[in-house]
Design a protein that fits this description.
Layout lengths: L1 H37 L3 H13 L5 E6 L1 H7 L3 H7 L5 E6 L8 E5 L2 E5 L1 H17 L7
Parallel strand pairs: 1-2
Antiparallel strand pairs: 1-3, 3-4
Helix pairs in contact: 1-5
């Protein structure tokens, strides 16, 4: 009898935690969308800066991003490259299929990518994985 009560209580607690996590994820999605709309190039610029360090010595890096972000970053590409110590050329390509905070960066020896949908999917998977584990009554 006591074990059943403890098990039900543990399940109820996990249910509340899962619901709270999903609610927090929904709120985070809304806030992230608002932040991206306010500063659409910030996340892409950060990814570009990290990628330029990985591509040091490369003659050229191509940044694929949304047309809006491409337009915002284009005038600053030389400055960003200089600040990061990248001596090659940075070329930007606006692609309508990419979201505002999404980008793909390519160079001869590698590449980098940022995808809002992949980030959201990974977070949702972590939440689901966390709450799919049902502890036994003995735990």
């Amino acid at each position: 009898m006591l074990r059943e009560i403890v098990a039900r209580s543990a399940k109820a607690t996990d249910d509340v935690r899962e619901e709270a996590s999903l609610l927090a994820l929904a709120a985070a999605r809304k806030l992230a969308a608002a932040a991206v709309d306010a500063l659409p190039s910030a996340d892409v610029e950060e990814v570009l800066r990290h990628a330029l360090h990985q591509a040091l010595g490369e003659p050229r890096v191509v940044l694929h991003t949304s047309p809006k972000v491409a337009e915002l970053l284009k005038p600053r590409l030389a400055e960003i490259a200089h600040e990061e110590g990248f001596e090659g050329r940075v070329v930007v390509s606006g692609e309508a299929a990419l979201g505002h905070a999404d980008c793909r960066i390519e160079w001869r020896g590698g590449g980098a990518e940022r995808s809002e949908s992949l980030i959201e999917a990974a977070i949702a998977e972590l939440i689901i994985r966390r709450f799919s584990y049902a502890p036994s009554v003995e735990e």
